[in-house]
Q: What sequence folds into this?
């Protein structure tokens, strides 16, 4: 007989031990998956770890994967904290990439810092505008933001396809023969290339620093300001928020816009830091938005933890790309991410609840 | 006559809408018991890959191999759904996050691709696939030929499923119990119903439906294994459940409507209409329509009349009312 | 007929949940007609003939009465795979006729009044052929007249050979109906005695564990100030979009306690919410201290000086997952000292929380404890502390003592009186006539959204109030 009871007090050590055990358990399950499909588990994990963090240049590549995950992770964390399930980070990132690239092409002649700031602002605005749609619908028509934000991901993916493959838009490269056979985005001007810094061979892109700054700003906003206080109250109990005279609707729209803006920043960073053109295939294949939700959930919506988890999962993703090939199981990265999330989600039960196992007796039951 | 745009679009809309219909019926059953499962896309993909695998590996006559493949796909979908059920029913995890985890675990960058790659399925076309059932003379009948008689057995089976699920929910004792569990688990519990058992059963059956939906792609529509071949159909299936106010017959209408819209660009392209809108526009219509439908459904009056199962998305814990 | 008497939190409901198989006992055993039984689920209990009418009804709202009654049944008409709706409806009609419990089998639950819903619950138990029927605080939602009718039904069932366990914390009910009384205190059986021999005062002492004053009426006339809260032909819709408050006009003077009596669900909650700005009035006006509110704006109501103690403590009155400190500044976080400009001043918030916790004797290990972990009484102290710290002009208190133990009730009553003495106009909404008669200067009775009568707090009798609550003038 298993009984699950709510804990009256949550010992502090549990909040450390449970996640560690959960992660270990996830790797144990992954081991079973690998064994079942005849892959050597230890060897595979070792290769993953090496390709992610050890090999020459691996950390630089890991940062390339981790930067967008940090943005989409923060995007999800900001909204989920208020029980707003914005799963449109994917589309909001595309939107930011579109507006970022468009602005870079428009003002490309200006000095580089001006172009970069314009791209950052445009990216944030693009993401925020897209996220405002589910936000407004949720606030004023109580339409579930889950499905609407998700549907918009597909719509924006189609728009980005249309801009590059389906039309002769401003963003499409139309010079030369090759560009007409293999459509692609216009190469952005040099002034739109975001700077990076190299420390002992590790290349740190501007986007990564922006992500750290955003995380710090989000933390401050939520922990130290009236706005953050209201978000916390409404997230915990919307009725309590209304009771206290908070403007719940405005706050829903504001938080959705903030969340979308952060994902849009990630899109602009894709343009400026890494791709230097509007790259539909690359963006859509990367699935940064959905992975960002995993990052946020694993980080339990704490902005600084989001950075850490984004770095670790970025490493995993980077290793996945590097090792892609006949002898390395494709899709292992998603499986591992899923298992990690399952185990951490399931593990939360043990923080909030106590599980007691009792034996059934014919007569009296002894206290366990 | 049978080449008329409208006839072709309706006939193909039914074919393309069928996986949506299976997925939506499954999600509807789970939601009626109070479990929101956002992992439909992932379950579909695993169903698709396992169904395809079965057809490639079972050496049997076409009908036996296909039947086995559908069975394997259903089992695979149910197995993935079992993870969600365990997490949200027994471990009381957040249903939204858990459903997303299912999609990531099983989806395009996860288990379905892992299996597709590992079982080496990506290179070959299906050894067997679903074909039209009726003789070609029937299929040549005007209008009804392509629309009614030009479909595969999966389409006819889905009609049977719609009727069965509808009758099950409205006319049977078990259906009454499920609706009680989804609407007021406390009342159901007090009347001696096992809330967890009902929720497990319907989440698993829902997963099986999603698995069959996936097999519809890999064995009938595509028909081969391509990573991520469902292309978001799972999400549309979830939206359809809301779109149809949790009613199986409306699911059918919605699924065919969406199917028709996703086929429309191909039909227009094939005909070389000079006025054809960009395919991206008609492809995005189902998504935009879903958003509009959701806004309409979320009006107060509609919610009161057709509202979602009241306990949808909430774990039931006896001690915490 | 056996009464289970005890104050809130004494373990009455937990005990009966064990009897119906919802909870499992840690130790000890249950004997039914001398035989040991072990219930692993409500189904076991139902099969053994034990049924319960819960305080919060266990009914499926969109279902019909007949569907609710047959739910989970596996005998007779409930056994078949297909539902035979007609047959079920006929059975239910027969049963309700036999016991004089008028229910319409085809009506949907959400269309029924609370009293009718209770009858459905009782018919449900009869349908299950329950030999032991547990009623958890059944009169809490009824008018005195309806309660008397219920007692008649209970007696008829007992004469039929059924055992009734009647849970209550109201002494006069227990005296009126029970053969024997068992008193629980803090989860333990204190005594079992024959109801006829027991004195009310001694029962109360056993229940609380010390001598208590039963009903203390505030004595002496006080000076009342001018009208501080005035409602002028106020109307508002309920959650279903139907009119819930109809043309209510009412004035509360500074220092006065005006009570609104009525059976739950007659528009009291909606009225309170409209006054507090959480619900938008459809017509009429609210004046606070001479200032007219535009209505439907909680922030405006708060700044005009309306304090509100909501019926739903955990969830509306406090945000359960947030700390006590956060909840203390739930309304004052916009102003200094809790915030400076857009920024919070955490040290000041903490100080404020600590001083209020000290002044209102909130028992918690510190201001950082999540509100959810506090007991009901301490939670209500947090709410009151916060509401009084805003120096209100008028206070709306909706069922402020529901679910509290005797000590908690006395504390809340003391705070309400103290507030009135300081010149706050108090609008008390309660279903408990004893509470109302102990506190109120004036009593207005609401029935179906309208005020159907006003009485003086000193002289009103339970009889006439009950009649008004039932809609009869």
A:
């Amino acid at each position: 007989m298993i009984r699950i009871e709510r804990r009256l007090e949550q010992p502090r050590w549990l909040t450390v031990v449970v996640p560690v055990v959960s992660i270990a358990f996830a790797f144990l399950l992954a081991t079973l998956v690998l064994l079942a499909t005849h892959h050597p588990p230890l060897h595979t994990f070792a290769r993953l770890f090496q390709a992610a963090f050890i090999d020459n240049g691996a950390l630089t590549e890991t940062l390339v994967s981790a930067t967008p995950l940090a943005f989409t992770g923060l995007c999800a964390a900001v909204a989920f904290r208020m029980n707003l399930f914005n799963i449109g980070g994917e589309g909001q990132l595309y939107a930011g990439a579109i507006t970022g690239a468009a602005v870079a092409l428009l003002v490309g002649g200006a000095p580089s810092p001006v172009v970069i700031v314009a791209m950052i602002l445009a990216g944030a605005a693009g993401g925020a505008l897209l996220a405002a749609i589910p936000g407004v619908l949720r606030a004023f028509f109580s339409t579930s933001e889950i499905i609407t934000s998700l549907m918009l991901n597909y719509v924006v993916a189609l728009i980005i396809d249309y801009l590059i493959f389906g039309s002769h838009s401003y963003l499409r490269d139309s010079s030369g023969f090759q560009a007409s056979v293999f459509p692609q985005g216009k190469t952005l001007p040099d002034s739109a290339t975001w700077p990076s810094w190299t420390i002992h061979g590790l290349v740190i892109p501007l986007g990564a620093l922006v992500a750290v700054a955003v995380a710090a700003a989000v933390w401050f906003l939520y922990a130290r300001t009236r706005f953050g206080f209201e978000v916390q109250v409404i997230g915990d109990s919307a009725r309590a928020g209304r009771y206290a005279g908070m403007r719940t609707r405005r706050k829903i729209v504001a938080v959705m816009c903030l969340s979308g803006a952060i994902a849009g920043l990630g899109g602009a960073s894709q343009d400026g830091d890494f791709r230097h053109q509007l790259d539909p295939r690359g963006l859509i294949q990367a699935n940064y938005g959905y992975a960002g939700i995993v990052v946020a959930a694993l980080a339990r919506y704490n902005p600084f933890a989001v950075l850490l988890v984004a770095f670790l999962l970025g490493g995993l993703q980077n290793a996945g790309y590097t090792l892609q090939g006949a002898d390395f199981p494709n899709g292992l990265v998603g499986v591992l991410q899923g298992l990690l999330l399952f185990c951490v989600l399931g593990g939360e039960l043990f923080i909030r609840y106590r599980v007691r196992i009792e034996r059934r007796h014919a007569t009296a039951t002894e206290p366990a | 006559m049978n080449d008329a745009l409208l006839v072709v679009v309706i006939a193909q809309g039914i074919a393309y809408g069928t996986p949506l219909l299976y997925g939506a019926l499954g999600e509807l059953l789970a939601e009626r018991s109070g479990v929101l499962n956002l992992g439909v896309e992932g379950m579909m993909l695993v169903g698709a890959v396992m169904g395809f695998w079965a057809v490639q590996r079972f050496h049997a006559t076409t009908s036996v191999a296909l039947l086995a493949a559908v069975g394997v796909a259903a089992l695979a979908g149910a197995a993935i759904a079992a993870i969600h059920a365990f997490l949200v029913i027994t471990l009381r995890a957040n249903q939204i996050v858990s459903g997303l985890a299912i999609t990531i675990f099983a989806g395009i960058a996860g288990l379905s691709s892992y299996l597709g790659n590992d079982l080496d399925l990506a290179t070959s076309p299906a050894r067997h696939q679903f074909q039209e059932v009726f003789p070609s003379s029937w299929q040549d009948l005007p209008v009804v030929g392509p629309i009614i008689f030009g479909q595969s057995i999966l389409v006819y089976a889905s009609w049977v499923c719609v009727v069965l699920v509808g009758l099950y929910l409205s006319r049977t004792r078990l259906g009454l119990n499920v609706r009680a569990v989804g609407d007021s688990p406390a009342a159901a519990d007090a009347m001696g119903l096992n809330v967890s058992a009902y929720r497990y059963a319907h989440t698993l059956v829902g997963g099986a439906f999603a698995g069959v939906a996936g097999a519809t792609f890999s064995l009938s529509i595509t028909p081969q294994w391509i990573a991520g071949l469902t292309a978001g159909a799972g999400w549309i299936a979830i939206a359809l459940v809301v779109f149809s106010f949790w009613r199986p017959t409306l699911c059918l209408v919605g699924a065919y409507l969406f199917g028709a819209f996703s086929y429309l660009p191909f039909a227009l392209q094939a005909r070389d209409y000079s006025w054809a809108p960009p395919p991206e526009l008609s492809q995005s219509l189902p998504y935009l329509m879903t958003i509009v439908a959701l806004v309409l459904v979320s009006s107060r009056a509609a919610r009161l009349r057709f509202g979602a199962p009241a306990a949808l998305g909430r774990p039931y814990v006896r001690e915490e009312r | 007929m056996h009464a289970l008497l005890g104050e809130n939190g004494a373990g009455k409901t937990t005990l009966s949940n064990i009897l119906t198989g919802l909870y499992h006992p840690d130790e000890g055993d249950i004997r039914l007609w001398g035989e040991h039984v072990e219930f692993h689920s409500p189904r076991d209990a139902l099969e053994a003939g034990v049924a319960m009418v819960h305080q919060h009804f266990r009914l499926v709202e969109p279902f019909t009465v007949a569907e609710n009654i047959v739910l989970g049944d596996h005998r007779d008409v409930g056994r078949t795979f297909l539902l035979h709706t007609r047959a079920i409806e006929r059975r239910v009609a027969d049963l309700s006729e036999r016991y004089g419990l008028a229910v319409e089998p085809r009506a949907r639950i959400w269309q029924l009044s609370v009293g009718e819903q209770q009858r459905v619950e009782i018919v449900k138990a009869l349908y299950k052929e329950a030999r032991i029927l547990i009623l958890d605080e059944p009169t809490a939602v009824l008018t005195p007249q309806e309660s008397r009718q219920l007692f008649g039904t209970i007696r008829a069932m007992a004469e039929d050979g059924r055992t009734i366990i009647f849970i209550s914390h109201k002494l006069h009910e227990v005296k009126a109906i029970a053969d024997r009384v068992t008193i629980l205190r803090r989860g333990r059986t204190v005594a079992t005695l024959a109801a006829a021999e027991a004195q009310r005062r001694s029962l109360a002492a056993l229940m609380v564990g010390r001598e208590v004053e039963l009903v203390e009426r505030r004595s002496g006339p006080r000076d009342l100030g001018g009208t501080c809260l005035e409602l002028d032909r106020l109307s508002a819709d309920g959650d279903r979009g139907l009119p819930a408050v109809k043309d209510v006009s009412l004035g509360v003077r500074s220092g006065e306690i005006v009570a609104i009596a009525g059976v739950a669900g007659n528009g009291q909650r909606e009225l309170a919410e409209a006054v507090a700005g959480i619900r938008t009035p459809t017509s009429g006006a609210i004046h606070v201290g001479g200032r007219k509110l535009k209505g439907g704006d909680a922030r405006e109501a708060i700044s005009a000086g309306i304090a509100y103690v909501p019926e739903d403590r955990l969830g509306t009155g406090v945000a359960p997952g947030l700390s006590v400190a956060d909840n203390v500044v739930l309304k004052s976080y916009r102003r200094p000292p809790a915030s400076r400009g857009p920024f919070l001043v955490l040290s000041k918030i903490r100080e404020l929380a600590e001083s209020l916790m000290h002044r209102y004797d909130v028992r918690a290990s510190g201001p950082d404890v999540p509100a959810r972990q506090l007991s009901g009484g301490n939670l209500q102290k947090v709410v009151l502390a916060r509401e009084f710290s805003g120096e209100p002009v008028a206070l709306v208190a909706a069922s402020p003592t529901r679910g509290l133990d005797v000590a908690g009730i006395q504390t809340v009553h003391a705070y309400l009186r103290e507030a009135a003495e300081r010149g706050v106009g108090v609008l008390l909404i309660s279903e408990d006539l004893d509470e109302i008669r102990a506190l109120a200067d004036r009593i207005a009775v609401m029935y179906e959204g309208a005020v159907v009568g006003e009485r003086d707090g000193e002289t009103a009798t339970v009889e006439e109030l009950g009649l008004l609550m039932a809609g009869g003038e």
Notes: The mean pLDDT of chain C is 86. The first strand of chain C starts at residue 2 and ends at 5. The interface with chain B takes residues 20, 22-23, 41-47, 52, 54, 56-63, 67-68, 70-73, 78-83, 124, 240-241 of chain C (CB under 8 Å).
